[in-house]
Amino acid sequence: MKKILLVATGGTIASVEDGRGLAPALSGEELARYVPEIADVCDFDVVQPMNIDSTNMRPADWMRIRDEIVDAYDAYDGFVVLHGTDTMAYTAAALSYLVQGSPKPIVLTGSQQPMASPFTDAKLNLYQSLLFAADDRSCDVSVVFGGAVIAGTRARKQRTMSFNAFTSVNFPEIALVRGERIVRAGSPATCAGIGGAPRAYDSLNERVFVLKLTPEMNPSIFNLLKRDYDAVILETFGIGGIPDYGDYRRAIFGWVDSGRTLVVTTQVPEEGCDLGVYEVGRAYAGHRGILKGGDMTTEALVAKTMWALGQTSDPDEIRDLFYRTVNHDRLAEEG
């Protein structure tokens, strides 16, 4: 029987109502006792590095989760992280970059309703996450939620209340979990090339800001951001539109030429960004210092940019790290 480490961090799954609103209170051990059937799936231990609402989850907390996994890696066959849903996609992406190419599964799950609720989805999500983590063909970082298995860099919370809260953006779901069955699509290639020990990283640069274009936004905001941020992820209009009015070109080129990092993506949820399609984007397409987000999620772009800048400050090295495909985070393309 496989041995799984359950890493409890709080979230809705652990929350109770105390008269001031839902707040995490149940421990990982208490959550496990609600689902006695998991004893038939695997042996497990529980660690509790924190018990917080995921709204309060920060890069320093990603590192604490990473440390629990890396420190215990040799002793377990897989890992399940219990996490709040609101920032789960950020944490799943961050773990994909902090623990790369793991031949052992690292699964994140949570719930839309607390474990103690009579209508909870928590029991099935916990059970199916352990089921997937204990399967011989599972590997790398993923989110298991509502019967879907999603690559850790492709998950996004799409719904605030429904049990099928997460969607896989611009990439197929890795598998479906139907009862006690794991149904895989293209499973022979899922873990291709993964073997041996994962490559773990222990540094992030948190000075990354997401800027969403809105009509008539003043491009002088780039100057205001210089004091506190080393990188901006710019969510453009459509497939890659940046306004001609104002002084966007000077502001954007000035940001990049000052040695800071700019990643261009789209605020449209699906199908990605291509600066070369329209005149309003093409002026930026050829600038080597501007990184193209392609079809990546904003959550993955935040985590990957923090990871890349955490390894180096050299623009060419940042570029090389950024365009490296990690856990299905982007379709292969020329950087």
TrEMBL record:
It holds the Pfam family Asparaginase_C. The keyword Hydrolase applies. The keyword Hydrolase applies. One of its GO terms (biological process) is amino acid metabolic process. Its EC number is 3.5.1.1. GO terms for molecular function: asparaginase activity. It catalyses: L-asparagine + H2O = L-aspartate + NH4(+). Substrate binds at residues 54, 85-86. Residues 207-322 form the Asparaginase/glutaminase C-terminal domain. Keywords: Hydrolase. Residues 3-182 form the L-asparaginase N-terminal domain. The active site is at 12, 12 (o-isoaspartyl threonine intermediate), 85. It comes from the Bacteria. Belongs to the asparaginase 1 family. PANTHER family: 60 KDA LYSOPHOSPHOLIPASE, L-ASPARAGINASE. This is asparaginase.
